[in-house]
């Protein structure tokens, strides 16, 4: 039996999306191994204070608890996700981006990247999450650490995040160079690069 959407769910669900109660697993990479003793998170690029954090140091940063909706470009949306982790703004405050910075590229161990303008990740609902709905973030969903950018399609929310680079220009990431939209606004249905023209 198919359930109808409540008025609130209709407002929060972008066009072309269907709600899911589960969490589909989609990625283009093999899940990388995680060794807490060797894992490092690197912050680099055009910043006054580049730095690197161990897992224990990252977990020692001030934490936030946020609830947001997520929207996958393949057509599913999952509402009311509870996240725990570190706000992107906390990382940026420590790094001190230079005035020329316009964009950020988040990195994963395989070389996967995703790009967004700096103002997008400086929003107060963006975080590096290690917990989902009160449980450690599962590796298949990007654990131990995943960037979460609720206002963009979910491929921008890099799984297995291990670094962030601050740039003075836009640099398309893994899916963007393969035909996906550079901006990826779900409510505008910005799915493919041909829509940019």
Q: What topology emerges from the helices and strands here?
A:
Layout: H1 7-12, E1 18-19, E2 40-45, E3 51-54, H2 55-59, E4 64-71, E5 76-87, H3 88-95, E6 103-107, E7 113-117, H4 118-121, E8 127-132, E9 135-136, E10 146-148, E11 163-167
Parallel strand pairs: 1-5, 2-11
Antiparallel strand pairs: 2-3, 4-5, 5-8, 6-7, 6-11, 8-9, 8-10
Q: Explain this structure to me?
A:
It is a single chain. With 197 residues, the chain is mainly beta. It has a single domain (15-20, 39-196), classed as Oxidoreductase, molybdopterin-binding domain (Sulfite Oxidase, Chain A, domain 2, Alpha-Beta Complex). Helix content is 12%, strand content 29%. The chain has 4 helices and 11 strands; from the N terminus they run H-E-E-E-H-E-E-H-E-E-H-E-E-E-E. It has helices at 7-12, 55-59, 88-95, 118-121; strands at 18-19, 40-45, 51-54, 64-71, 76-87, 103-107, 113-117, 127-132, 135-136, 146-148, 163-167. The strands form 2 sheets. Strands 1, 4, 5, 8, 9 and 10 form a 6-stranded mixed β-sheet that branches. Strands 3-2-11-6-7 form a 5-stranded mixed β-sheet. Strand 2 (40-45) and strand 3 (51-54) form a beta hairpin. It starts with 6 loop residues before the first helix and ends in a 30-residue tail after the last strand. The model has no long low-confidence stretch (mean pLDDT 95).
């Amino acid at each position: 039996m198919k359930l109808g959407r409540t008025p609130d769910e209709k407002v929060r669900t972008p066009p072309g999306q269907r709600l899911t109660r589960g969490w589909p697993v989609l990625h283009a990479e093999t899940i990388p191994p995680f060794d807490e003793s060797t894992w490092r998170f690197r912050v680099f690029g055009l910043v006054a204070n580049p730095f690197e954090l161990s897992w224990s140091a990252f977990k020692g940063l001030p934490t936030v608890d946020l609830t947001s909706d997520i929207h996958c470009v393949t057509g599913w949306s999952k509402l009311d996700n509870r996240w725990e982790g570190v706000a992107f703004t906390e990382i940026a405050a420590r790094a001190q981006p230079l005035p020329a910075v316009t964009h950020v590229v988040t990195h994963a161990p395989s070389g996967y990247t995703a790009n967004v303008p700096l103002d997008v990740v400086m929003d107060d609902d963006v975080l590096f999450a290690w917990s989902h709905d009160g449980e450690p973030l599962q590796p298949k969903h990007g654990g131990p650490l995943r960037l979460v950018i609720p206002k963009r399609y979910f491929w921008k929310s890099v799984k297995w995040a291990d670094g962030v680079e601050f740039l003075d220009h836009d640099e398309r990431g893994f899916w963007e160079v393969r035909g996906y939209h550079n901006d990826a606004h779900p409510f505008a249905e910005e799915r493919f690069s041909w829509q940019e023209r």
